[in-house]
Design brief:
The chain has eight helices and two strands. By secondary structure, the protein is mainly α.
Length: 233
């Protein structure tokens, strides 16, 4: 099947790995928020979802360098010049606009801080993060506080992100959801996405898997079981 040309009114915008990452991250974040808020028996699931998010973030970071055209960070890096051009109505690019790019980088940064703090956190009851054993209880308590605080910030930013998508669709008549589902951008012309082949995908997946393994604490030596004192009587 021939790729659309630069004069076409339909171009390939988002590659499949980028789209899968996006929707899997949406599901994972929603599940993490719900399981974290409910707590109780769901707290172990919350921890597993956190590890999945670690893998997704690691994949996206690698894909931001080796993925296809519009998935690469350099394509939507929100420089001051690009943001000014966008605010003046002079930006004519494809993919994430400068404000959208700023939102993507902010979300990735906050999610990284959130899962990193969660790896060392504890709930003073039954849950400890997989890397809790690397630090002391006082530092873990501080990171637990940061983890709770960042969850509220992330929820607010996610709501703002959704609002921006709705605004673009309803007011600016620029559907951002359909291209992220199908991969195609309708009613526009430009250079179709290139790059991000199988080798790049394999490398990204391997690095993501290594990140999950490292975050899981499976490589840490087992902690000796605490001796249980038995009553003398």
């Amino acid at each position: 099947r021939q790729e659309p040309t630069m004069n076409s009114q339909r171009i390939r915008l988002w590659d499949l790995p980028t789209r899968l990452f996006h929707w899997l991250l949406v599901l994972a974040v929603v599940a993490a928020v719900v399981s974290g808020q409910v707590g109780g028996k769901l707290i172990d699931l919350h921890g597993k979802i956190g590890l999945a998010i670690v893998g997704l973030i690691a994949f996206r970071v690698v894909w931001g360098f080796v993925g296809s055209t519009y998935a690469r960070f350099a394509q939507f890096l929100p420089t001051p010049a690009r943001i000014r051009a966008y605010l003046k109505g002079e930006w004519r690019g494809l993919g994430h606009n400068p404000l959208g790019g700023l939102s993507v980088f902010t979300l990735l940064f906050l999610l990284t801080a959130q899962v990193a703090s969660g790896l060392f956190a504890n709930d003073d009851i039954a849950f400890t993060g997989p890397l809790y054993g690397l630090i002391g209880k006082p530092l873990s308590d501080r990171l637990s506080g940061i983890h709770h605080l960042l969850s509220n910030v992330l929820i607010a930013l996610a709501v703002l992100h959704v609002g921006a998508v709705i605004f673009h669709g309803r007011v600016k008549k620029d559907d951002l959801i359909k291209p992220m589902l199908t991969g195609w951008k309708e009613g526009t012309s430009g250079e179709p996405a290139r790059g991000g082949g199988m080798l790049a995908l394999i490398v990204a997946v391997i690095i993501a898997g290594a990140a999950v393994y490292g975050a899981s604490g499976a490589w840490l030596p087992e902690q000796p079981a605490k001796a249980v004192e038995t009553p003398s009587w």
